[in-house]
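Sanity check

After download, print the first record. It should look like this:
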Amino acid sequence: MELIIIFLIILLYSSGAYMLLRRSMVKLLIGVMLLGNGTNLLILLMGRITRGNPPVMEDSLKTLIEPFADPVPQALILTAIVISFGLQAFSIVLLKRVYVLVNSDDLDDLNTPEEIDDI
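Expected structure tokens:
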């Protein structure tokens, strides 16, 4: 199972880096999204995937004996998903506004010396 996730992380990071090198702003956003998903899988993999019980102890036990799932990586990933969703929503609105003003999604068109009067 871990080997499949490793190959998936490699695929997400390589395709995300490739998309970051494109000139289109939409492809840049897709690249950031792919890198974020790859990082979430990396955190999950580093937290050791274990099939076990939830980490809830009975009152009589002082330590966990059985294998249990670690809740910290899962909480980190859930937080990262929420933050990345907010970042993606803001980026999509920003890209739409830039496209309306510039009429292009090419990053080189943003560096033109023409002034935009509609701001």
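If your output differs, re-run the checksum step. Summary of this record's structure: The helical segments are 2-20, 25-46, 71-102.
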